[in-house]
Design goal:
Monooxygenase, Helix Hairpins, mainly alpha
Length: about 170
C-alpha cells in the first residue's frame, strides 16, 4: 500500500497539506495501538504497524520535496538508490557549478563566516525551489526523465543546504 493509498488519495505532487494533516489525525486516532491494548497480540501488532505506516506516510507527503521524490519513485525511478542516481545524467555545466559552489563554501567555512554561508544558502534555496517547481511540473505531465534530472539537481542543492546547516551547528557548539 502506498502512502497515498493510506489516505485514500491519488498520487500527485499537489496536496492540500492541511486536509492531509486533518485526515492523518483522524486515522491516527482510529488506529492508535492504545485503542486495542486489551486485544490479542496480532491485533495489537497490526495497529502498531498501521500507526507507524501513517506516521511515515505523513512525513513524506507533507514535505513537497520528499513528496516529489516519492511520486517519481512510484513512476519507477528511485533516486535515493545509488544505481538510479547514477543513471540520471547531470549536465556537466551544472556539476561544475555545484563543485565551484562547494569549494566556495569550504573557503567560507575555513574563515568561519556564517553570514557568508547563509548568503550562499539563500541563493541555493532559491535555485532548489525553482528546480523543484520544474520537477513538479514535469511530474504533472508524466515526464519522468525531465523530473528525474530536475530532482537530481534538487538532491545536490539539498546536500549543500544540509552542509550549511551542519556548519552552523558546528559553530554553535
Amino acid at each position: 500500500m502506498t502512502h497515498f493509498e493510506l489516505f485514500s488519495l491519488e498520487p500527485s505532487v499537489d496536496l492540500d497539506v492541511a486536509a492531509l494533516e486533518a485526515q492523518h489525525r483522524k486515522l491516527a486516532m482510529e488506529s492508535h495501538p492504545d485503542r486495542v491494548s486489551g486485544s490479542d497480540p496480532h491485533t495489537r501488532r497490526l495497529a502498531a504497524e498501521k500507526s507507524a505506516a501513517l506516521n511515515d506516510a505523513i512525513k513524506v507527503l507533507k514535505d513537497p520535496v520528499r513528496r516529489a521524490f516519492y511520486v517519481l519513485e512510484l513512476k519507477g525511478v528511485k533516486l535515493d538508490s545509488d544505481q538510479a542516481a547514477a543513471k540520471v545524467k547531470m549536465p556537466m555545466d551544472f556539476l561544475e557549478e555545484i563543485m565551484e559552489q562547494r569549494e566556495a563554501l569550504e573557503a567560507v567555512k575555513a574563515t568561519r563566516k556564517l553570514e557568508s554561508a547563509h548568503a550562499m544558502a539563500v541563493q541555493i534555496r532559491l535555485a532548489r525551489d525553482r528546480t523543484l517547481e520544474l520537477a513538479q511540473q514535469a511530474l504533472r505531465r508524466d515526464e519522468v526523465e525531465t523530473a528525474s534530472t530536475a530532482l537530481g539537481r534538487v538532491r545536490y542543492y539539498t546536500r549543500f543546504l544540509e552542509e550549511v546547516d551542519a556548519f552552523e551547528e558546528e559553530l554553535q557548539s
